[in-house]
Amino acid sequence: MIKFFRKIRQNLLLENKTGKYFKYAIGEIILVVIGILIALQINNWNENNKLEEKKQDYYQQLLKDLKKDKEFSIKTIEQFNQLRSEYDNYRNEFYSKNLTIKEVYEKLLNLNLESVSITFSSNTTETLQNSGEMVLIPSEIRNKLIDLKNFQNTIKANSLANNLQKNNITQKVFSLFGNFDLQKRVANQKNLESLSVTDENRREIILGWENMQGWKNFSENNSKRQLQDLLEDIDNIERKINAEINK
Hints:
With 247 residues, the protein is mainly alpha-helical. It is 80% helix and 0% strand.
């Protein structure tokens, strides 16, 4: 093709058609420029397609993370509801029965002491931030994702601090009577009668367990409220991401 154009130019010069030569040369330059612009446009189109594919892939990953967080939050709220229901039933017995110290002691020991560990799936958001590709996501969704991650970090930090406080109280109470099954093990051991829990010990243990369960009640209700707010945020982000996917 280049040889063909060069031959035309040479013929024009040989025929002393200078005006036509310059017009042809200008036309050739224009064609080259147009060719370059078309090539650039195609390249930009290809790059935009690649970025769009990458963005769509991130959307799907984000939706998977959000789904996991939603399922975890719902499951954890249900767990908190069950634990709080058991605690409320224990408290309500004080309004309908004449309880003995031993009965209160045994009912408290039957309450769940487990601390719930709260974690979230924010891998995709972290990848977007660390790679600098967060700019691929529209600003409205981007800001909400960052706010969501910050809120999740706050929930985790609060839960960790509350669990630490509960564990500190639990350790102090355990020092008063040992392990849960110790009393059963020493019941038939005459030489170990001094390890049996007395009413005086039970009073101290009851106060300690009440303190721990009260703190547990406060912290779990607080975590439950935060998780409920988190579910609303997740629903909002999911709607916006799906709207972008369906454009």
